[in-house]
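Aim 2, interim progress. The first record below pairs a target sequence with its structure tokens.
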Amino acid sequence: MSIHIDFIGKAGRFSIARVVLAKHAGFCFGVRRAVETAERSAPAVTLGPIIHNPQVVRSLEDIGVVSADSPAAIDPGARVVIRSHGIGRAVYRALEEKGCEVIDATCPFVQRIHDMARAASAGGTPLIVVGEREHPEVQGILGWTDAPAWAVLSEEDVLALPPMESAQVVAQTTMVQARFREICALLEARIPRLDIHATICTATLDRQTEVADIARQADVMLIIGGRESSNSRKLYKLASDICRRTYFIETAAELDGIDIAPSDTIGITAGASTPDCIIKEVVARMNDIEKKVSPEENQELEVMSEEAIDKTIVQIRPGQIITGKVEMITDDEVCVNIGYKSDGIVKKSELSSTDVKEGDEIEVEVVKVNDGEGNVLLSQKNIINRKAWEEICAKEEAGEFVEGVGKEAVKGGLLADVAGIRTFIPASQLSLRYVEKIDEFVGQPMTLKIIEIDKAKKRIVASRKAVLMAEEAEKKKKIWENLEVGSVVKGIVRRLADFGAFVDIGGVDGLVHVTDLSWGRVKHPSDVVSVGQEIDVKILNIDPERERISLSYKQTQPRPWTVAGEKYPVGSVVEGKVVRITTFGAFVELEPGLDGLVHISQCALTRIAKVEDAVNVGDIVRVKVLDVNTEAKRISLSIREVLEDEAMDSVSDDGEYDIGDIPGEELPVEEAPVEE
């Protein structure tokens, strides 16, 4: 943006100087977010100055936001705001141990580098940060890895590195891009395998590109920023390499010592830690032109009044955000006094809220300085949309999710509203499964991942499927972490196979082998369980790498032999199934895993030559328990005694015979071979 400074003299209007103000000057997204967070959190403590600008730090102190050098200097239980530079893992722990309320204002770009450092640490990969070792941002990044880590900024630093086969490389967000490339080239010559991430903030890149362009056309360059600001110092270095008359200033007061000629083109930019008020003050001080002209010229010129200069020099420009007072409201417009020579007009369609009244102060953005009728065209929605767009871009860069609401089903997918910005979700990205009716998502809130962003056209493509996959992966990870061999958990039978049953135990499937379904013999899993049935299972083995879990159903139930004496007392009559026949008797299954022997002498009322003369495999028979030996795992049963009891009952009912008159001959009891 260019601002012309004019005099009005006897000879008419006289152009003295041209000021070129950088578009990307002042607070970046992360810094503005940190400052606003600190203001909302007052009273609070910041760990180190919230930004490298003494004026902002003093203004925060006035509202109760003070800074501390370390966790040791912070009182237990205090409210602590983490500045945009971020901190290391150990510092978070120290604050938690003191019971502090931590409000994290770490820049999303920096947070993304922390995630990279954690990932490198998990794999044992060395980390190299290209940046200033003592800078708090670099210190914070190094604090997120347990693997070997270094900060390098020169060829000497690179040569001092120990030999290594591989490393991950990241950049301090305010690093000069050209210098980062030079250091990476040196690293590539020494380390065979490098994973390089150019993590320089996009706002930093824009700022550095713009300052070089302005410096080429300026006679004088003014870099506004705190002396301790890394990005401001880098801007000064870039500008001074191009423009010899480059000055680094903190406030407008420092302009007094700078010699600026009336014909000079003045370039102005500011570091990311410089507030808007200081930038405006510096531009306004360019109005102090009395020392820019000779006494002779000063006698011939009528200098404009201070008020006129303010209106002429403190220019409003498209995109500028200002605060104005509502003067009048009509059916479709709101008239706002913004302190300019013309009133501003906000169409009601451009209001973020229709709940405004005369006298209200509202924040607006300049859309047009002159709408053709001499009015300044303003908008409230643009401010919200810009902030939303910046936030969405920052979240996309940081890999964070966004919240949206389905608005309209269109060809190929769904349109959603994400913070007021139209976002397209392809049909294939709506769900983990095929979606037949996209209309079902209209009006539904949803969490989305940005998968494509066109900053020039402001178009966004997002995925709900990616979020669901991430949630499932996280859920599965937590489940695997909580699994413990030997524990008993609830599960639902999902699928049956000849070799066993697959059971869902809270998001992951485990296998109950057919041999672990029952203490008895099982021909097919369907003999024991059914699909959809809820059962308790015991975890036998876990293999996270192959994602396999071995389960047991039978071990959640008591072993049959341990309670056989209680369930089948001597003398009781029970029903069972003949499962096997030998020469000496028949084995009867009382329950799965528990068989008893009916000796051949106990199979019938009369002597039989072979067991098959009395019973066959598969027969359901009633037997009396003669003896239970749980240690030897033997149960002796009798069919004969059941038949005798039934016959006795029948004879007693008729009243014709005594028990001794029951027909049949006494059968000898033979000792059966031992068989489990």
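The second target in this work package is listed in the same format:
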Amino acid sequence: MKDNRLFYTKPASIWEEALPLGNGKLGMMVFGNIEEERVQFNEESIWSGWETNNNDDPATLEHLDEMRNLIFEGKYTEADALCEKYLVCRNKNRDRGAAYGSHQTAGDLYITVPNVSEKGYKRELFLDEGRAEVNFEGIKRDYFISYNYNTAVIKVTGDVENAKIRFERENACITYNENEITVVGYLPLKFAVYIRYEIKDGALYIYVTSATDYKTNDDPEKVCDETLKKAMAAGYEELLRDTKEYFGEMLGRASIVFPESGSKADIPTNERIANPENDIGLVELYFNFGRYLLLGSSRGKLPANLQGLWNKDYNAPWGCDYHININIQMNYWFAEAVNCPELIEPFFDLIKMIAEKGQATAKNAYNCPGWVAHYTTTPWGYTSLGAHPVFGAFATAGAWCLRHVKERWLHSEDVEILKEFYPIIKGSSEFFCEYLVKDPRNGYLVTVPSGSPENSFKSPTDGSRASMCAGPTMDISIVRELFEFNIDACNILDIDKDFADKLKEKVAQLPPIRIGKHGQIMEWSEDFDEWEPGHRHISHLYGLHPANQITKSTPELFAAARKTIERRLENGGGHTGWSRAWIINFFARLADGNAAYENIVALLKKSTLPNMFDNHPPFQIDGNFGGTAGIIEMLMQSHDGYIDLLPALPDAWKEGEFNGFIARGGFKVSAKWKDGKVIDCEIVGKDGKQGTVQINGQTIDFTGNFNYKE
């Protein structure tokens, strides 16, 4: 029995206990209340902001040299003060730019069925069917969202003749007609929610859809009307079949199975989360839930945001936006490995948009060619600096996004992805070729002014808090990776040889990753003391994960990376869900399965809400996705030139199997293990494709397919 079900014996008393359903475009949260059910809805593009090109502050460029000189002179306190004035967006007195806005809830549907009893109550979410159920005496409710028909469906079976339906949504016109509710509003983007319902054969059928005019000339009301007509003409059974097949096929592409799977499936999920020790099946459930969430939030026009697409607010935490200084990247860490590349397409579309919009920011803020994007963006491609440099001056964020284009190439070896994105890759490289300047203190090319995302150090002159510096480790790691990827693309496509040679010269002048006085990877270009030694960001380990600049083949850096994590944890690090998830991946790369598993248990116990959503706090979905990626990294890695089976297997996972993982090189990998050793393995590669696998301490070269059985 697989662990594919979330199970509860009580209704949700708060939103964080409700069950999420999604089809990549629409979302709903099922509370499962007794007399009056509440179902909260979302549509991916209901966003209160609008497009603007007026957030770059010309004062940034005017004072750029002055900021750089202060940093080079070691006057970090003065540099910070100047950067707080000028290394910011035009609307610096706001949290973000004036038109930034927020993702918003679509509203709440309430279904009242009188005279019911809570006896025998059960609330379930079936992940591989994309379906939820609520059952209690005399009533059964079914919920799902069809991808192909873009319609949410609720079926209520029981005494429904006196059922009542209402919808609540602020700042919208809500109209009740016979068997229909229409909701229309403007943010100024126009949105619509249409609900149609009917009683047939003793059951109440409710159909819901939503649309906006985001990036389209189509009227959302017309779109909703046509969508529901098609869905209702197809009928309930067809929509249910479509949903089950869709989720079953997508989630069936990869799997993890432990012998203990399902043994605790009849224990309510919230109780399992509170006691994750010795519940190996819960790890399988978490892996399945992570994939389910990405499938449910990234199959439309927009990528998964900070909450996927499940958001109850009108002004959400951080706007429920797209943080590109780790959060959106973490959302997609595992998508290639579980053979779901389609789910990354909305992210690729966002990259194309910020590359276009970021050309103006590159010129306005830095007088550089190419394009740049900073720590956060919106559905309209916001690329400007943020409201404060400690988080908002992260100029390598857009380049980090391009790592996912690199991963697509590495996993598929499809030259078309390089052709499609080459102008964008080159545009980012062109920016950094110009933005990098020589540090007069050591001769290295560095990004300046810059900082290590959201962290600060003690100024060596007066001990005050400072954040702006020259060439923080994460920046240099990203720029090195970008340039080397660009060089590889030039070689593969046989183009731009002169530009590739220029990049090689730049790479040779970048500072190396260095080890500090505590034996740790240095976070900044100088061995500063951290202001907050337990900071949630561990950006200077980018080279360990997600990149491959720190591996077993660099033993001194490998040991320093471990020391870095230990120092963070000793000082209270890992206190947010996504940070803990990153630590799981770090320990997996360090081949320490027991430490990785300890952090999985901590993620479940300390940073997982009752409905299995990740808790930042508040809810932030990247921890779910990062944790899922970490589980995969423990079982298979392929970042260092070969396929490594069970590289970080913990003692607790004595027996199990995984199927359908995709390794770099395009290999499809499945394996079974017992007592810590692989006993059966199949690797499927393209004809003539050469590969290397490390298995039970042996390194074996193969061509095409590979089979192993002990």
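The two ends are 25 Å apart (CA to CA). This observation will shape the mutagenesis plan for the next reporting period.
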